[in-house]
Design goal:
It is a single chain. This protein is mainly β. The protein has a single domain, classed as TolB, C-terminal domain (Neuraminidase, 6 Propeller). It has 2 helices and 28 strands. Strands 1, 2, 22, 23, 24, 25, 26, 27 and 28 form a 9-stranded mixed β-sheet that branches.
Length: about 400
């Protein structure tokens, strides 16, 4: 693993490169000490496990990209799936395919109403699109190990022009609303539309959305969403994102951390503000992208951290650690790159510094890090694959433990 530093851009560097004032980034070039941890093997034999969550009873519900939700009970993988959505998915090609079953979130009142939500890729119902992203609600049957497949209620569909940059994460915020990460629609350089989708407030692509699922309609719009009544899509909470693959809320500060997958050179971590513009495709991280020089940065919010592609090629967002077992990680944001490196960010005053998490007991061969999961005690798990897509059953679940 390379140990070169993140490129933490100071404002003066940004001004020189881009010629305009963006909202200040409080990040530096500093490096923190490395932390050594260990991977404990929890389960194997999964088809590209891309997302997971824990029920109040402690069941781990794991989404396989190929469409099944699997149950882990007391670290044992149950043969019968919790829910099988394979028949609803667009045909997945295998290697490097970014479509499939991508996200899951339990309703805040799941213990009472047994509702949960999924994000999956279905065949498009409109001409000219590759597929459509579906956000749907399901209920658990009388058996807590089995969902009611007939209970589907579709909340939202989003037409996707390309097969990639789908986003796919779902999280309920501390306010009780459902937050949805949606990519820019794919294709290199956000090429759809005059200014791309990320900067277009009349499309849901390239955004973080915020909706109310507790309505009699498909979904409701919270009154305090920033673009309500402003001639824009009212679901939008933040924009200017390329592919917000994984995000999370800090249990203490309630801040929303989003890891946004980059294009040619940089990966980035953002803290999301209401109505914030995070720059894509004007900027890639804190660097001008389109145009490459002298881009207009007025009002853009810079990432708290970024790294170049010599460190990795696709960021996987994680969590601020709030558990009890790994005290060295307390207050630190843990994340990774798909290619394997694991990192942390630590706030020092008004700046963020990064360190590397060295992992013992890693399996031989490539380890693709697809997602992080937080259990009911705020301990962290890692979802991995040893393939570049869902073509083989080489996915696994690991827990981060002390060495």
């Amino acid at each position: 693993m390379k140990n070169s530093g993140f490129i933490f851009a100071a404002l003066i560097v940004l001004l020189a490169a881009c010629g305009g004032p963006a909202k200040k980034s409080n990040s530096e070039r500093n490096l923190a000490a490395d932390i050594s941890l260990k991977l404990e093997n929890i389960a194997e034999g999964l088809h590209s496990p891309v997302a997971a969550t824990f029920s109040p009873e402690g069941l781990m519900l794991v989404c396989e990209q190929t469409g099944q939700i699997r149950v882990l009970e007391n670290n044992k993988l149950i043969d019968k799936p919790f829910l099988n959505l394979e028949s609803k998915l667009v045909k997945i090609s295998g290697a490097y395919d970014e479509r499939g079953l991508l996200g899951i979130a339990l309703h805040p009142d799941y213990a009472i109403n047994k509702k949960f939500y999924v994000y999956y890729s279905a065949p498009s119902t409109e001409k000219g699109f590759d597929h459509q992203s579906v956000i749907a609600e399901y209920k658990v049957s009388t058996d807590p190990m089995l969902a009611d497949a007939a209970s589907e209620r579709i909340l939202l569909t989003i037409q996707q022009p390309e097969s990639n940059h789908n986003g796919g994460d779902l999280k309920f915020g501390p306010d009780g609303y459902l937050y949805i990460g949606v990519g820019d629609g794919g294709g290199a350089g956000d090429r759809h539309g005059e200014k791309g989708n990320g900067q277009n407030l009349n499309t849901l692509l390239g955004k973080i959305l915020r909706i109310d699922v507790n309505t009699d309609q498909s979904y409701g719009i919270p009154n305090d969403n920033p673009f309500v009544g402003k001639g824009a899509k009212p679901e939008i909470w933040a924009y200017g994102l390329r592919n917000p693959w994984r995000f999370s809320f800090d249990k203490n500060s309630r801040q929303l951390f989003v890891a946004d997958v980059g294009q040619n050179k940089f990966e980035e971590v953002n803290i999301i503000e209401k109505g914030g513009n995070y720059g894509w495709k004007i900027m890639e991280a804190s660097h001008c992208f389109d145009p490459e020089e002298n881009c207009k940065t007025e009002g853009l919010i810079l990432p708290i951290a970024e790294y170049e592609h010599e460190e990795g090629i696709s960021i996987t967002g994680g969590f601020v650690y709030r558990g009890k077992e790994l005290t060295r990680l307390t207050d630190k944001y843990i994340f990774a790159d798909w290619t394997g490196p694991v990192f942390y960010l630590e706030k020092k005053g008004e700046s963020w510094i990064r360190g590397t998490v060295s992992l013992a007991a890693k399996p031989s061969g490539d380890l693709k890090i697809l997602s992080f999961v937080q259990d009911n005690n705020a301990e962290l798990y890692v979802l991995t694959n040893q393939e570049v897509g869902p073509k083989d059953i080489k996915g696994a679940v690991y827990k981060l433990i002390n060495p």
